[in-house]
Specification:
Length: about 575
C-alpha cells in the first residue's frame, strides 16, 4: 500500500514512477494488480483492478507497463502516470498471483491441500513479509508426530520442502516446547546425512580420547548403546588418525560391551588392530595437547511414538568444536543407609528390704559417603547431563526401662545414650574438564530418631526380634514404704557434615541458550529429625525423690566449596547450603 500523493508527486520521485516508503520486493516482469481502494481519484493512466507489469527502478521505486514478453524479458514502454487527487489516500499494488498458505509443506503439496483460513481484520503495519524457510534463517520446522514426516522405519525426516542442507552440516535440535521423538535430545547438536533435497537422516557423534580411549584394540565409549554389526563412521581430528583406521570411513561394530567396541572392515569381520594416537618423538611437540574430539558417528534410531508438538526444528549450529556433547547422561551416585537400636529392661521385681534397678543401653555409629570424579580425570568429559549425588540416611533409637519396688529402699537408674557421626561429600576433583547440558551436584545427610513408639525402619528390619514395648526412651519407676528414688537419663548426639567440593583448576561448563539454559546446581544439605522422651514415677510413705533428664545434642555443617576453578553457564549458577 502507499499514499499516491507522496508516491507519485514527491519532489524526489522520478516522473512516471511510484515510490514506496519501504522495499517493495518486486522484480521487472512481475504481474501486479493496481487498486485505488475506493479513492475518488485513481492514478492517471491506471485502471482499478487491471493487471500491469513491473519495471523495477530501485528497491523502493517502480514503473508500470501494459505488457511483458517472457521470452525476451522485455516490457512495453512504461505508462505516463500522474496523480491529481487528495493527499493521505491509500492505494495499493499487489502481485497478480495470490498465495494461499498451508500449515506445512506436505499439506501444501498433498492431493487435497490443507489451506489456512486467514483473516486480515485487525492487522496493523505495512512491512509484513515472508521469507524462505532455511536451516540458517528461522530453522527447518517439522512435525515429528506425522508418519509422512518422520519415518521410523527409515530413520529419516522429510521436511516436505527443499532443506538446503549438505552432508555433515552441524544442526542443533529444538523440540519447540514439545516432547522429542525417541533418539533426539533437546539442545543437542547432530549432523545431517542428506537423502534427497527434502529428506535427511540424523547422525550423532560419540567422542573419545584417541590416546587413553584406545587400548587392546578396543575403543572406550561409556554407555555407547551400539550393537554388533552396526554400521558406523570414524571421524578423526586435525592431529591425525588412530592407527588402523582411516578418516571418514565406514566400519562395523564387533565384540561390543557396555562401554567398549571394536571395529571391523566388513560385517562380522575380524577386529582391526588399533594403535592409540600419540604425539610421537618430536621434542617440540611434547607440550601440545592431544586433540580429544575423535568420534564414532552413527545414524540416530528415530521413533515418533512418544513425540508431541508440531514446532520442532533444526537450525545450523555453526562452529560446534566447543559444544560437542556425547549423548546420554553421566550419573555418579553414592548412597548409604544404616539403622541402630538398643533396648534394655531391668528390674520388675519386689524386695522386702532393699532393691536397685540399673538399665543401660548405648549405640554408636560412624559413616562416610562420597561420590566423586577424581582429581585430574583423564581427558574432557562431554555428555548431555551430569548428576553427582552423595546421600546418607542414618536412623537410630534407644530405650531403657528400670523398675524397682521394695519395702525399705528402692532405686531405679536407667540410662540410654546414642551417638551418630556421618560425613557426606560430593566432589569434582582438581583439574577435571567437564562440558555438559546440565550439572547437578548434591550432598545430603539425613539423621532420623523417630518417636520410640512409632513405626520405623526397625519394625521393617526386626524380623523375629522383639523390641521392648516402651512408650518413652527412658523411664524409671521406684516405690516403697520408706525411701524411693528414680533418675532416668537419655542422651542423643549427632555430628553431621555435608560438603560439595569443586577442586582447583576444574573447568565446569554448562551449555544451552538463553531460552533453554541447562541447570547448574551445587547443593549441600543436612537434615536432623529427632524425638526423645524421659519419664519418672516414684512413690513412698516416707522419703521419695525422682528426676528425668533428656538431651538432644546436634552439630551440623554444610559447605559448598569452590576452589580456584572455572564455572560457566548460559543460565543461573545456583549454590545452596542448609
Amino acid at each position: 500500500t502507499f499514499d499516491p500523493d507522496r508516491a507519485v508527486n514527491a519532489a524526489n520521485v522520478m516522473s512516471n514512477s511510484i515510490n514506496f516508503d519501504y522495499d517493495h520486493g518486486f522484480e521487472t516482469g512481475d504481474a501486479v494488480v493496481y487498486s485505488a481502494r475506493g479513492s475518488e481519484t485513481p492514478i492517471a493512466e491506471l485502471s482499478d483492478g487491471v493487471t500491469y507489469y513491473v519495471v523495477r527502478d530501485s528497491a523502493r521505486t517502480i514503473q508500470l507497463a501494459a505488457s511483458y514478453d517472457p521470452d525476451t524479458q522485455d516490457t512495453s514502454e512504461p505508462l505516463p502516470i500522474s496523480y491529481s487527487g487528495a493527499a493521505n489516500e491509500t492505494q495499493s499494488i499487489d502481485f497478480a498471483t495470490k498465495l494461499q498458505l498451508a500449515p506445512s509443506a506436505l499439506d501444501a503439496v498433498s492431493p487435497d491441500p490443507v489451506v489456512l483460513d486467514i483473516d486480515g481484520s485487525g492487522i496493523t503495519g505495512l512491512d509484513h513479509r515472508m521469507a524462505p524457510q532455511t536451516a540458517a534463517s528461522g530453522g527447518l520446522v517439522f512435525d515429528p508426530t506425522r508418519n509422512d514426516v518422520l519415518d521410523s522405519e527409515a530413520d529419516s525426516i522429510d521436511f516436505g520442502f527443499v532443506h538446503g542442507l549438505e552432508d555433515g552440516d552441524a544442526i542443533a535440535y529444538d523440540n519447540g516446547g514439545g516432547t522429542p521423538p525417541s533418539g533426539l535430545h533437546n539442545g543437542t547438536v547432530y549432523y545431517a546425512d542428506v537423502q534427497d533435497e527434502t529428506t535427511i537422516q540424523v547422525r550423532e557423534r560419540l567422542y573419545f580420547d584417541p590416546d587413553v580411549g584406545v587400548e587392546s584394540n578396543q575403543i572406550t565409549l561409556i554407555g555407547h548403546g551400539l550393537v554388533d554389526d552396526q554400521l558406523v563412521t570414524y571421524r578423526n581430528s586435525p592431529t591425525g588418525e588412530v592407527g588402523g583406521l582411516s578418516a571418514d570411513t565406514d566400519y562395523y561394530v564387533v565384540n561390543s560391551t557396555t562401554n567398549t567396541i571394536q571395529l571391523a572392515g566388513t560385517e562380522g569381520g575380524a577386529a582391526i588392530v588399533l594403535t592409540k594416537l600419540t604425539l610421537g618423538d618430536d621434542p617440540d611437540a611434547v607440550d601440545q595437547p592431544i586433540e580429544t574430539l575423535h568420534a564414532i558417528e552413527r545414524t540416530v534410531d528415530l521413533d515418533n511414538a512418544v513425540a508431541v508438538g508440531a514446532g520442532h526444528r533444526f537450525t545450523l549450529a555453526g562452529d560446534v568444536e566447543e559444544s560437542r556433547l556425547a549423548p546420554g547422561a553421566l550419573v555418579i551416585r553414592a548412597a548409604g543407609e544404616d539403622a541402630n537400636r538398643a533396648d534394655t529392661v531391668a528390674g520388675k521385681g519386689f524386695s522386702l528390704v532393699m532393691t536397685f534397678a540399673a538399665a543401660d543401653s548405648e549405640t554408636k555409629n560412624k559413616a562416610g559417603t562420597t561420590a566423586a570424579i577424581g582429581e585430574n580425570a583423564t581427558g574432557q568429559i562431554r555428555v548431555n547431563s551430569v548428576a553427582i549425588s552423595a546421600d546418607h540416611t542414618a536412623e537410630f533409637n534407644h530405650g531403657a526401662d528400670g523398675t524397682s519396688i521394695a519395702l525399705l529402699g528402692a532405686g531405679s537408674y536407667p540410662s540410654a545414650e546414642s551417638e551418630v557421626k556421618a560425613d557426606v561429600s560430593a566432589v569434582i576433583g582438581a583439574g577435571v574438564d567437564l562440558r555438559s547440558g546440565s550439572l547437578d551436584v548434591s550432598a545430603v545427610n539425613r539423621i532420623v530418631k523417630p518417636d520410640i513408639d512409632e513405626d520405623s525402619v526397625f519394625s521393617d528390619q526386626s524380623g523375629d526380634r522383639d523390641f521392648a514395648d516402651l512408650d518413652r526412651n527412658v523411664q524409671g519407676v521406684g516405690g516403697g514404704l520408706i525411701a524411693a528414688t528414680a533418675a532416668p537419663e537419655s542422651t542423643s548426639k549427632t555430628y553431621t557434615t555435608a560438603n560439595v567440593v569443586i577442586g582447583d583448576g576444574a573447568q565446569l561448563v554448562v551449555g544451552g541458550d538463553t531460552e533453554n539454559s541447562g541447570a547448574f546446581r551445587l547443593n549441600a544439605e543436612n537434615e536432623v529429625i529427632a524425638y526423645d522422651e524421659a519419664g519418672v514415677h516414684v512413690g513412698a510413705v516416707i522419703g521419695s525423690k525422682g528426676w528425668a533428664d533428656s538431651k538432644l545434642i546436634s552439630e551440623a555443617d554444610a559447605h559448598v566449596v569452590v576452589g580456584d576453578a572455572t564455572l560457566e553457564s548460559v543460565g543461573d549458577i545456583k549454590l545452596g547450603t542448609r
